[in-house]
Design brief:
alpha/beta; 5-stranded parallel sheet; two-stranded antiparallel sheet; 9 strands; about 35% helix; binds 6-chloroguanine; tRNA (guanine-N(1)-)-methyltransferase; EC 2.1.1.228; tRNA_m1G_MeTrfase_TrmD; tRNA processing; transferase
């Protein structure tokens, strides 16, 4: 899987070298390329932003560097990528979308800063690939970099071979539409807090039933919105 990231802060992505995704990169499972948007500027100050037409606060990212960046990356890859612009005005990123990303051969992430990117860039990008605006959730970050890091990690760990034991991927929060059940390890009692006895019973059927009940109970308490969804596993 190839991932291109266009940003004015390429250093943000240095942490992709470490941990799970770092190993996936050195094993050749993930081909991540980080690009400085300013390489596609031509003025002495390497300008990427300008004042908004119509007035208002803040600056808007100019379309020209974005156009050249997308042209060059898409031409180099030679096929139509998925082009993702992180934006608090986008659709919300969820596990099914992470799964979709993990099955995509080539994703280009365009990290906006300031008050956003000139709207015409999204329209132009649609000629080169399938465009999606994607948000992490209902709060505002300073730019798309942290959001892209989250999306790359969520999708990258679903690429076959990236996570050592694939079983650990299925029994997780959100994979079955519910929150994960609670986990315990030794000792059997710690600071007057015993492990739930059913987990020590050796009765696998009882353990499975208890875990399912815990998933439903926690989801009811913390995330009732998941149970109200059309595709809720509780329906
Ligand atoms: Cl994707 N970008 C920004 N700037 N803020 C966000 C976000 C994305 N998702 C949530 N807040």
């Amino acid at each position: 899987m190839r991932i291109d990231i266009v940003t004015i802060f390429p250093e943000f992505f240095d942490v992709l070298e470490v941990s799970l995704l770092g190993r996936a990169r050195s094993k050749g499972l993930l081909d991540v390329r980080v690009h400085d948007l300013r390489q596609w500027t031509h003025d002495r100050h390497r300008t990427v932003d300008d004042t908004p037409y119509g007035g208002g606060a803040g600056m808007v990212m100019k379309p020209e560097p974005w156009g050249e960046a997308l042209d060059e990356i898409v031409a180099d890859a030679g096929s139509r990528p998925l082009i993702v612009f992180p934006s608090p005005a986008g659709e919300v990123f969820t596990q099914p979308l992470a799964r979709r990303f993990s099955r995509t051969d080539h994703i280009v992430f365009g990290c906006g800063r300031y008050e956003g990117i000139d709207e015409r860039v999204f329209d132009y990008a649609a000629a080169l690939g399938d465009v999606r605006l994607v948000s992490l959730g209902d709060y505002v970050l300073n730019g798309g970099e942290v959001a892209v890091m989250a999306m790359v990690e969520a999708a990258g760990r679903l690429v076959p071979g990236v996570v050592g034991n694939p079983d650990s991927l299925v029994e997780e929060s959100h994979e079955d539409g519910l929150l994960e059940y609670p986990s315990y390890t030794k000792p059997a009692s710690w600071r007057d807090r015993p492990v739930p006895p059913v987990l020590l019973s050796g009765d696998h059927g009882a353990v499975d039933a208890w875990r399912r009940e815990q998933q439903l109970e926690r989801t009811r308490a913390r995330r009732p919105d998941l149970l109200a969804a059309d595709d809720s596993p509780a329906l």
